[in-house]
# Entry
Amino acid sequence: MAGSRMNKRFCVIGVALLLATCYGWIRLLLLTFSYDTLPRQTAHHLRFSLSLPQEAEWYEQQCFGKIDEKLSISTLEDTIGRWQIALHPDCLKVFQKFTTIYSISRRTGHVVIPETFQTKVLKWLGNDEELLKEVKLQHITSIFNRYTHESAIFNPLRAKRPGATDPGEDIDQYIEELISSSQNCDFCDFKFKTAEDTFGRIESEHAVTASNTFKYDAYHALIILKSHHPLKFSEEQFLDMFDVAMKWFLKVHSTDKQYVYPHLMWDTLPKASASQIHPHAQASVSSERHYGLMEHIRLSALEYSLKNNGQNYFTDLIQVHNALGLTTKFGEATAMAYLTPKKDYEVMIISPMAGKDFIRLLYYTIRAFIDDLHLYAWSLAIFLPKLEPYGIPKAEDIPAVARIISRGPPTNPRNDISAMELFAASNVNIDPFSVIEHIKMSVSMKGRLQAGDLKKIAERKEQLQHEMDELEKQEEELELKENIEKDAGNLEVGDDGGEVKMVGVLEDPGGDRGIVRRGGDGNGATERREDGLKLMKEQLISQRGAGNDEKEQRLGDDDPEGKDFEGKYLEGHDTRRRVVWPGDGVGIEEEIGDKT
# Structure
């Protein structure tokens, strides 16, 4: 019996060991299969960097071969072909990054235009026969981002079609009418006509926050510039506005720690869906993730890093654009004409953090839109790294990213977004290679000056304007003296049929000066000028026929003909007269009845 019990114990122990061994082998097999089938997780992701292996000019000389014409979206596929066979290792290294991120193709479309339609097409094209040839044989370039799945289709010829870029009417006049009709708006009177956050407002010299009355997130505010004009704001105002925005983001985070993803949106003019003419941006902070599109790009960047030995997607993106000459750098920020834009003229600005260089480069880009390209309606979106007040963004996080596009001529009623953009791919009419040239010029001209220097220039400009006004005033006085000398022979009043003549200049102890004008009836009027701006009227009535009694009666502003007048009734003549002032500063005597 004792032996049988012992055998049973050994059996139980053996079975337990067998089960444990089987479990161990099964788990080992599962781990092995998981290791083989899942992408290898790298030990770390490389942090975002703006460093460049070479400058754009080097790539053009060493990688693209001899190019007879400037790089453009139409010749991009040919450029990529030459890049592929370049011998230098640095050329091939960046080329590999380009082909890893992008797929590019070019297709040709043929158009047969009958004679009955050709005249109209030529008119659309400004009677340019070369453009007509391009219409008959069109080259369409398609670029696809393999990771973010952004897609853009380029045909610059589409910008020539009717209504694509036609403003429709005088844009400057349209904008001035918008501004004048919206003066004293709610945002001008923000203290009484906008809401506040529970923690109050954040206010500075040039900007202030207001809580959005109709929110799209729990923390959703307006960052309002205190000046009303939507296009005329200085670098100092712009920097101050974004300083207020950053303080608001941090205030939200300190109020509720779970809100860590900051966003800023800005639309200008009704064409870009702005509800108010007054410049304002929409600020919000979300708790779970960035908003959809940017979160998709962040996840795509992580996938890129996992599949490419920890390489940073945004670093490689800049290097690819730089090789093609599509970037310009300012301090710790880079602007690039994006190869897969959402719409025309898109510029993307990237920096490790939303520092001063990032904001200044964004300002120079906006000024290029407004001042150089005359793109007054635009939409801007900014996505910032997770709010980490006591540290720097992690390698897995996004850098500071700003994207700005044109929304088309502000007076054109045609919508710039169609079903194609909403549900398929971006239909782009503007060549990114031409866009970056304007951004480079703006950065070169404006970026060399600090904000303090710009303030000094503005003050000097104001001083020069004052000096010019003084010179104009002196010229007026000199011209006045010359005219007096010419009319010196007309000091005697004659019967000239009512023709008005300037007969002299009066000066009084107060320093006011006036021009005396007389008509043929002997009555004169003085136009007094103070500082060349204010016009005062004073009558000079001379009586013909000495010894007659004179009765004076002041007349009011109720002339039935709508004329402003004042003067005297005169007696001693066959008729009674009054001096009338029609508004031009010249007294005209009218008969108003006989003595009876």
Observations:
- Residues 490-594 form one domain.
